[in-house]
Amino acid sequence: MDTGNFTGFQVTLEEPGIAWIEFNEPEKLNGMNTRKKRDLIETLVQAQMDNAVRVIVFTGQGRAFCAGDDLKAYSRGDAAENALMAPIPPGHDNPIGTYNGLRHISQALNLTIRSLDKLTIAAVNGIAIQTGLSLALSCDFKIAASEAKLGSATLRFGLLPDEGGQYLLVQHMGLAKTLDFVMRKKIVSADEAMSLGLVNEVVPLDQLRAETLKLASELSLGPQVAMRLLKRSVYQAAELSFEQACDEIASKTAISDHHPDTREGVSAFREKRTPKFNAWLENQA
């Protein structure tokens, strides 16, 4: 995958196979615009297709993870030097423009994150509001700095959590807590976010990168084929009946049971040693 600086974010590849995506416009609180979202989608597609990438991390610089959309950017429609592609219209200037902008750019980003087979981590360094919260909740794991603040709060502007935020909140908190959260326009501390089920862990800010890399490394060294199949199966199980979920995981088990990683795992167990998974990836390097 391409590394370097893009529209409002930079990409590095850390060992063992960790794609580190860092929003780098702290002066704008890492606000989103159409170009940044489109470049992120392209970056994520590259990460999905690149065998060198095993885990994807999102984080931000400064006091925000992402404080929502940069509304000024939408209105001025300005270009960005490091965009992967040519500028596109900001949209949202009429009803059908808003519909298309959401479906093909804003919602498409979170759908892309959720559709990745590879595991994702949001390292929430600071403020995560509206778009930033939805992006974080689209990830498989969420680690928040103790200073972080998380909220939807779209009703403060008479807006809706239109990038799938309502669905993601219900998945994490349930219906009653989601209604209380969005209707009362709550912005909560990291500790309260953890108690609500929005994040997995809270750590001091100066330990956020180290703890995130520790988790990412653990996930990167696991059996990648089985983990990716299991990720998809868990998400699908949330939408299926029990019988359908059983059939779905049976079809995936027909793949994983015959993979070299499984043979290695069984051999390591019998020999009382730590398994060495992912030889198939190392052979492709």
List the helices and strands and how they pair.
Layout: E1 4-5, E2 9-14, E3 18-23, H1 34-49, E4 55-60, E5 64-66, H2 71-76, H3 95-115, E6 119-124, E7 127-129, H4 131-138, E8 141-145, E9 149-151, H5 165-173, H6 175-183, E10 187-189, H7 190-196, E11 201-203, H8 208-220, H9 224-237, H10 242-256, H11 260-270, H12 279-282
Parallel strand pairs: 3-4, 4-6, 5-7, 6-8, 7-9, 8-11
Antiparallel strand pairs: 1-2, 2-3, 9-10
Q: Could you explain how this protein is built, in words?
A:
This protein is α/β, with parallel strands linked by helices and 285 residues long. It folds into 2 domains: 4-220, Alpha-Beta Complex (2-enoyl-CoA Hydratase, Chain A, domain 1), CATH 3.90.226.10; 224-282, Lyase 2-enoyl-coa Hydratase, Chain  A, domain 2, CATH 1.10.12.10. The protein has 12 helices and 11 strands. Strands 1-2-3-4-6-8-11 form a 7-stranded mixed beta sheet, with helices on both faces. α9 packs antiparallel against α10. The protein is globular. The mean pLDDT is 93.
How many strands? 11
Please give the largest β-sheet.
7 strands, mixed
Secondary-structure-derived class: alpha/beta
| N to C succession of SSEs | EEEHEEHHEEHEEHHEHEHHHHH
Low-confidence spans: none
As for the CATH topology of the largest domain, it is 2-enoyl-CoA Hydratase, Chain A, domain 1
Rg from C-alpha positions?
A: 20 Å
Give the C-level CATH assignment of the largest domain: Alpha Beta
Strand order of the largest sheet: 1-2-3-4-6-8-11
Beta-strand portion reads 15-25%
Overall shape: globular
Distance between the termini: 13 Å
CATH architecture of the largest domain: Alpha-Beta Complex
Secondary structure: helix percent: 40-55%
The number of domains is 2
State the fourth-level CATH superfamily of the largest domain.
2-enoyl-CoA Hydratase, Chain A, domain 1
- How many H/I helical runs? 12
**Residue-averaged pLDDT:** 93
